[in-house]
Amino acid sequence: MSLVELNCPHCQNRLNFDVEDTTQSGVPKRPIIVSLLAVGGFILLWAIIFTLIASSRGRQLRDAKQNITKIENEAKAQLGDAKQNITKMEHEAEKMLVEAKKLKKDAEVQLNDAKRQADKILAGAKKVKEDAEGIILRDQDQLHQIFGELHPYKSGLNDVNQRYVASFSISGRIAKITLTNSSSLSVKPRISVRFIDRFGFITDIVSVTWLIDEIQPGETRIEEKDVKLNFGSPVYYQVIFNDQ
């Protein structure tokens, strides 16, 4: 008997086969040889499949490691960039904070200067106003001494309420004088209205003189007269009754 010993590359076991090539009649034992070849082919096939699987898994493992390494490198690069950006932003924020503090300080200085100037201007304006008021009062006193009783003139309707002169107003070049007779007797108007500026100049005089007609008790009449304010808008007016 002749034995052949084979090692299985997959399970590492030893296999023994009887390879006696003749029988007692001298005919070769072909079935045994075929069996050996089939087993060897099967073992070789499994060896090839195992090698292919191991090679494929090895490539997958290498690819996975490469991908992991690539991802790690990209993550490290992004982390480095993020740190640089954060550092840059921190420096810019600190710079902006310093500039903001400087601007605030400059603004406070300018505000204090503006406040001092405003206080100075207000004080000057107050003094000018007081001086002007004093001058106006002195002018009023002097004008009252010169003309007698004066009344402040205002734009629009001026209430007079002196005897039968109720009011008057000036619109453009027309003076409207309202005459009301509140007495029990008829009256014949004879008045003059003087318009005076602050310097004492008579800008114009409007006269109402009725020679025939009269205002009856309880009656109201309106007289319209031309007016020319030669020295500008008046400041005072004075009503003079010429029938006294």
Present the secondary structure layout.
Layout (H helix, E strand, L loop, with lengths): L2 E5 L6 E5 L11 H118 L3 E2 L4 E6 L2 E7 L2 E7 L9 E7 L5 E8 L10 E7 L9 E6 L3
Antiparallel strand pairs: 1-2, 3-10, 4-5, 5-6, 6-9, 7-8, 7-10
Task: Provide a short characterization of the protein structure.
By secondary structure, the protein is of the alpha+beta class. It contains one helix and ten strands. It has one helix at residues 30-147, and strands spanning 3-7, 14-18, 151-152, 157-162, 165-171, 174-180, 190-196, 202-209, 220-226, 236-241.
Structure description:
The chain is rod-shaped. The protein has 244 residues and is an alpha+beta fold. It is built from one helix and ten strands; from the N terminus they run E-E-H-E-E-E-E-E-E-E-E. A four-stranded antiparallel sheet has the order 3-10-7-8, with no helix packed on it. A four-stranded antiparallel sheet has the order 4-5-6-9, with no helix packed on it. The model is unreliable at 21-25 and 131-135 (pLDDT under 50). It starts with a strand and ends with a strand. Strand 1 (3-7) and strand 2 (14-18) form a beta hairpin. Among the domains are: 3-65, no CATH class; 150-241, Immunoglobulin-like (Sandwich).
What are the secondary-structure elements, in order, as H or E?
Answer: EEHEEEEEEEE
Which runs of at least 5 residues are low in confidence (pLDDT < 50)? 21-25, 131-135
Q: What is the average of the pLDDT values?
A: 82
- Broad structural category: alpha+beta
Query: What is the CATH topology of the domain at 150-241?
Result: Immunoglobulin-like
Largest sheet: 4 strands, antiparallel
CATH class of the domain at 150-241: Mainly Beta
What CATH architecture label of the domain at 150-241 applies?
Sandwich
Taking all Cα atoms into account, the compactness measure Rg is 63 Å
Strand line-up across the major sheet: 3-10-7-8
